[in-house]
Amino acid sequence: MQLHNISGVYFIGIGGIGMSALARFFRQTGKEVAGYDKTATRLTDELQAEGIDVTFADGVEMIPSQFLNRENTLVVYTPAVPADHPQLVWFQTHGFEVAKRARVLGIISEGYSSICVAGTHGKTTVTTLTAHLLKQSELDCHAFLGGIAKNYQTNYLSSPFSRLVVLEADEFDRSFLHLSPALAVITATDADHLDIYGDQQTFADAFEAFAARIKPHGMLVAKKGTNLALDRFSGQCHFSYSLDDDACDFYARDIRLQNGLYHFSIVTPEEVIDDLTLGVPGLLNVENAVAATALAVLAGALPHEIRKGLASFQGIRRRFDYWLRSDQVSLIDDYAHHPEEIRATASSVKALYPDKKIVAVFQPHLYSRTHDFYNEFAAALSIFDEVLLMDIYPAREQPIPGVTAQMIADRVLCPAKVCQRHDLPAQIIASGAQVVITMGAGDIDKELPVLKAHLEQWMNEENC
What we know:
The chain is α/β, with parallel strands linked by helices. About 35% of the residues lie in helices and about 25% in strands. The chain folds into three domains: about 5-100, Rossmann fold, CATH 3.40.50.720; about 110-310, Mur-like, catalytic domain (UDP-N-acetylmuramoyl-L-alanine:D-glutamate ligase, 3-Layer(aba) Sandwich), CATH 3.40.1190.10; about 320-464, Protein-Tyrosine Phosphatase, Chain A (Alpha-Beta Complex). Helix 12 (about 405-410) links the parallel strand 19 and strand 20 (about 415-420). The longest helix is centred in the middle third of the chain and has 17 residues, at about 285-300. It holds the Pfam family Mur_ligase_M.
């Protein structure tokens, strides 16, 4: 695929977080860019505001005329798009260059020194924080992010001079096997996407295959406990990291919580970087900061640059994202959609609010994931004081008979029930919640403006 010969790029599924980053890249490099997505979102609104044509009808007649020339048009699609999508089928049957997002990202990254972040959870935060640390250093970087960085209000970052690119290495559909990192981290290998992989061993094997793609003399940082057989990869330098295990190459120490933020030091193989403050809350983010610091240090960032970057980091949309913060009630939104992510988020919010009633609102994502992990979801959600579950968000899937959110609710140890979307505000207020945290990878974030408005109205009425 010769990208320099292409004048237009059409995206099928342009509203996805990874797809939109690619769309922004091509737009910035002077290509004509347009695309389709199923529904309008805040992200598609932003793309349209940037001059990218987005359609929400899947008919072939909706494709702009400038993208009908197969000689200079690249078509990019996400694996979440069904195989019988009319536009996808038309492009495939008319001789166009059609490629999955992962393949295109792999081709783009070949011209750079790639820093790749893989793992079942934590990768979006680690990717974004690594990019921010490099942006605050003399090194700078390009970055394709899996979330909207609040510091930059985008998921694509560019540089006028840097040859470093930071990439989120997605394991879904084995996408990360298109990448060839110079430096990589693996944050977790807890089973997920078993609809793709089938079993835990095949899932773990894919991460080892990813590690094998690290370039000769490259470096890999792995979280302690990932239990990957990395010793057979000769020519690589391997490092370990953890939150606070001093047996690792990178870890935090002297961790203390002050005024809602964590202060700590990070121990590296060469030195101790002290007097650190992380600009976003949550103990899970301290561990993410250790991973990001490891990558930045190995790339060449200096201690004073690390210190500046961690303190100025503003976080990512939908990652421990405050919508409301007050003495009466706080509203937090988080993307957690795997049992271990929920467990980590629950631990973080409990540490911040040890004496307050915490109510979780969880929207399960995918029938297959609910089927595979309903017991694990229930155990993680039981950490909260009360749980409200929404119906399963299907995304790309058809329903599986008998698989419902009630399967989780029946096994949660604290009070729990399935709640319809329109009943959420009343149920939350009736619960007496002092902290509300919404979680899920579906469209639960659409409810946040409504929830915030109801909670603010309730507080005003209480204070009258």
